[in-house]
């Protein structure tokens, strides 16, 4: 069941689970868009690609995620999703940690957010 959703300049997120210590979201990154270059101090994330493909920056590496691929983002890892394709990229994000809310440190942002 959908708990919450929000349209963003890069696409949309939908929240399906939100329990103490974890949260599960479906994230859609529109063609030609990318998320902030960011890191987290209190949570880990696990992403599973379910539609399309995208480039994922993880610290000093850039990897291409395709359907069925997954990536683990540890506390402090610098990361970003970039969709250079003509179709949406969709992934499932599981956030794990004691402090999940408001744990985004943006290092770069195309949309002027801090």
UniProtKB/TrEMBL annotation:
<dbReference type="InterPro" id="IPR011051">
    <property type="entry name" value="RmlC_Cupin_sf"/>
</dbReference>
<dbReference type="InterPro" id="IPR001538">
    <property type="entry name" value="Man6P_isomerase-2_C"/>
</dbReference>
<dbReference type="GO" id="GO:0016853">
    <property type="term" value="F:isomerase activity"/>
</dbReference>
<dbReference type="Pfam" id="PF01050">
    <property type="entry name" value="MannoseP_isomer"/>
</dbReference>
<dbReference type="GO" id="GO:0009298">
    <property type="term" value="P:GDP-mannose biosynthetic process"/>
</dbReference>
<protein>
    <submittedName>
        <fullName>Mannose-6-phosphate isomerase</fullName>
    </submittedName>
</protein>
<dbReference type="GO" id="GO:0004475">
    <property type="term" value="F:mannose-1-phosphate guanylyltransferase (GTP) activity"/>
</dbReference>
<dbReference type="GO" id="GO:0005976">
    <property type="term" value="P:polysaccharide metabolic process"/>
</dbReference>
<feature type="domain" description="Mannose-6-phosphate isomerase type II C-terminal">
    <location>
        <begin position="8"/>
        <end position="109"/>
    </location>
</feature>
<keyword id="KW-0413">Isomerase</keyword>
<dbReference type="InterPro" id="IPR051161">
    <property type="entry name" value="Mannose-6P_isomerase_type2"/>
</dbReference>
<dbReference type="InterPro" id="IPR014710">
    <property type="entry name" value="RmlC-like_jellyroll"/>
</dbReference>
